[in-house]
Amino acid sequence: MAEAGIKSVTKPRPGRPRKAAAPPPPWVDAFLDMMVAERAASANTRDAYRRDLVDVAHYLTQAGRAPLDRASSDDLRAYLAHLSADRIKAKSAVKTVARRLSSLRQYYKFLVSEGQRAEDPASVLDTPKQGRSLPKILTEADVAALLSAAATLGAPEGRRLNALLEVLYATGLRVSELVGLPMNALGRDGRALTVRGKGGKERLVPLSAPARDAIAAYLPDRPFFMTKGRETRQQAFLFPSRATSGALTRQRFGQLLKDLAIRAGLDPAKVSPHVLRHCFATHLLDHGADLRSVQKMLGHADIGTTQIYTHVVSERLRQTVEQHHPLSATKRRVR
Question: Where in the cell is it found (predicted)?
């Protein structure tokens, strides 16, 4: 087959020099500009679309097929088949194929709308079925251990980390939303945050009393994280940093959280900002919160995305019954 032996540009084999990728087709940049201007796509989303489309374009060129802008449905099927075969042992294969197909669908819809194509070759392609895994979470005791460890930290760095952790667990913000919070996100009374999420949509998220106290304790330390001569940029953020962007980076916060996990006696591999977002949602549902409220606080456009947390609660209830009910199969086997 023409595509045999072609390797994905996103996963070069160790030890082999990566070939320079060809520049993207002319309409890719126009598509990405549209995503930013009309759909408020973030820089990360823009970069992800670009990587996906460049990978497809590179494959089509190397396989001797039609270029991306003129590719047929068969060309795209060949690419997806190659991608699945190349990742046959990887657990992420189905998710990767689904994401690339989503990028292609958005791109070709754009080309059709711009009059660059008469038909959408991606519209007839089937999305691979994905087995949806349950979110990983920590127990309430684990989160309490994290919070206790953070509360004992002194110095400006410790008080900032404590405020970050309390806000994250109190609101379930995405990590990019958390570290990028502007100073004016904090209301006058400090009882809620105004958060700008995906697609530029704003939502109001209440703050718990511990989160408000942690922020109040941290605020006098904000100037410590600013660099002389760059205060104007850094002052815009609730959690400024000496990083080039002026705000604390996601990567740095993730590192600090893993260090805190070790201090709290937890496995750092099981602790991340996104895991704490899962904890926020699951623990709320555990204590009787309604799904619609959780959806609004998480900033999910579709309640179906939020419903995954009900499965977590149901699974935990099932395990509890299995372990503790006197007539459960587990108890009978033990006897």
Answer: Cytoplasm
DSSP at 122: T
Provide the strand spans (E) within the chain.
192-196, 202-206
3-state secondary structure of 176: helix
The region, left, alpha or beta by phi > 0 then psi within -120 to 50, assigned to residue 229 is: left
Nearest to 221 by CA among 276, 158, 280: 158
CA separation, residue 55 to residues 20, 50, 89, 104 (Å): 12, 8, 20, 11
Catalytic residue annotation: 174, 198, 274, 277, 300, 309
Query: Residue 99: CB partners within 8 Å, gap ≥ 6?
Result: 48, 52
Query: Burial code of 280-311, b = ≥16 C-beta within 10 A, e = fewer?
Result: bbbbbbbeeeeeeebbebbbbeeeeebebbee
The pLDDT tens digits for 147-172 are 999 988 888 999 999 999 999 999 99
Q: How far apart are CA 28 and CA 54, in angstroms?
A: 9
Backbone phi, then psi, for 192, in 5-degree steps? Answer: -155, 160
pTM beyond 0.70: the answer is no
Say how far apart CA 72 and CA 94 lie, in whole Å: 22
Query: Are the CB atoms for 295 and 285 separated by under 8 Å?
Result: no
Sign of the torsion angle spanned by Cα atoms 248, 301, 83, 115: negative
Contact 301, 308 (CB under 8 A): no
Structure tokens at 69: 């802008």
Residue spans of the chain under pLDDT 70: 1-24, 86-93, 129-135, 311-335
How many residues does this entry show for the chain? 335
Q: Which 3 state secondary structure label does DSSP give 258?
A: helix
Q: Report residue 290: phi and psi, to 5°.
A: -85, 150
Domains and CATH numbers, the chain: 1-130 (1.10.150.130), 140-270 (1.10.443.10)
Token reading at 217: 């304790």
Angle CA(226)–CA(232)–CA(238) in degrees, nearest 5? 60
Q: Residue 268 CB: number of other CB atoms within 10 A?
A: 16
